[in-house]
Amino acid sequence: MIPLGRFYLFIQAPAGKGKKLEIVELAKGTSLRSFAGVLESRGIVSSARLFALYARIKGGDARVKAGYYQLSDGMRPFEILDKMLAGDVYQRIFALPPGYSMYQVAEILEKHAIFRKEAFLAACRDRTLLDQLGIDGSSVEGYLFPGSYNILPGRTEHQVVREMVERQLKVLKSGYQARAEKAGLSLGKLLTLASMVEKEAVRAEEKPTIAAVFENRLKLRMRLQSDPTALYGIRAFAGKVSRQDILKPTPYNTYLIAGLPPGPIGNPGSDAIEAVLSHPTVPYLYFVARGDGSHQFSSDLTAHNAAVHKFLRSSTVSAEAP
């Protein structure tokens, strides 16, 4: 027989001073008695027996939600149970913005203490995983779906990369693959062009026009001369490049190589992919940033040079200047 005074004191009193923080999983099918034992062993509650009794009195056995919970020893038992009854599960949300490269993704994950940067990048390049996912390239670049992810404790870098890729492949195969093949584009080339459009465009409405410029230049065998390609794998693209940047030899630098880079330079969203497949017919061969997020498009070199002189400082170069 448990004295009522002790029982009520237990409900109201935390086990500690809030210095211990634990992420604890209540797996589906796990009894509250067993879960209470885990809480006691980790110092979150002072008595597994009393917590299980309290939960049973409150009808918790049938009402608590499975999942991961972030709990501290500074929480009172009734607060812990309320959290579980409400299904207030622990979430570690990570958002992958459209256009971000796998290098940027790795840096964000490390900053949020989810994965180490190099470990995530190693998973992105793992040949076995690439083969399993059907990716011919040297990494998953371009195949990571821009969106939100809840990265639960215990998940590995490989599992998260697989989830990101499978979400992108689902979108590609359901809405774009057949259209890309009709246009003579492999998925790799589609994503490469779309990643360049995504990196170049600030305003969504300009993506189709930028895609059209790239196609016009490819048809004329002109170098694409896209600023973000010169910086890929070296540093983040910030909208401006120096002359030293565009002269740096890399496999991706379209100032120095002909045609498309060997693979995507980021992970494009659906609107950039759509822009590549359904852009308008335009006469433009050049564009230059105006400095307000928009671009000045030109059909001939004379007009383009005038736009470059107007909008760019001498320390930078245009996105598509020859």
UniProtKB/TrEMBL annotation:
<feature type="site" description="Important for catalytic activity">
    <location>
        <position position="200"/>
    </location>
</feature>
<dbReference type="InterPro" id="IPR003770">
    <property type="entry name" value="MLTG-like"/>
</dbReference>
<keyword id="KW-0472">Membrane</keyword>
<protein>
    <recommendedName>
        <fullName>Endolytic murein transglycosylase</fullName>
        <ecNumber>4.2.2.29</ecNumber>
    </recommendedName>
</protein>
<keyword id="KW-0812">Transmembrane</keyword>
<keyword id="KW-1003">Cell membrane</keyword>
<comment type="function">
    <text>Functions as a peptidoglycan terminase that cleaves nascent peptidoglycan strands endolytically to terminate their elongation.</text>
</comment>
<dbReference type="Pfam" id="PF02618">
    <property type="entry name" value="YceG"/>
</dbReference>
<dbReference type="GO" id="GO:0071555">
    <property type="term" value="P:cell wall organization"/>
</dbReference>
<dbReference type="GO" id="GO:0005886">
    <property type="term" value="C:plasma membrane"/>
</dbReference>
<comment type="similarity">
    <text>Belongs to the transglycosylase MltG family.</text>
</comment>
<dbReference type="GO" id="GO:0008932">
    <property type="term" value="F:lytic endotransglycosylase activity"/>
</dbReference>
<keyword id="KW-0961">Cell wall biogenesis/degradation</keyword>
<keyword id="KW-0456">Lyase</keyword>
<keyword id="KW-1133">Transmembrane helix</keyword>
<dbReference type="GO" id="GO:0009252">
    <property type="term" value="P:peptidoglycan biosynthetic process"/>
</dbReference>
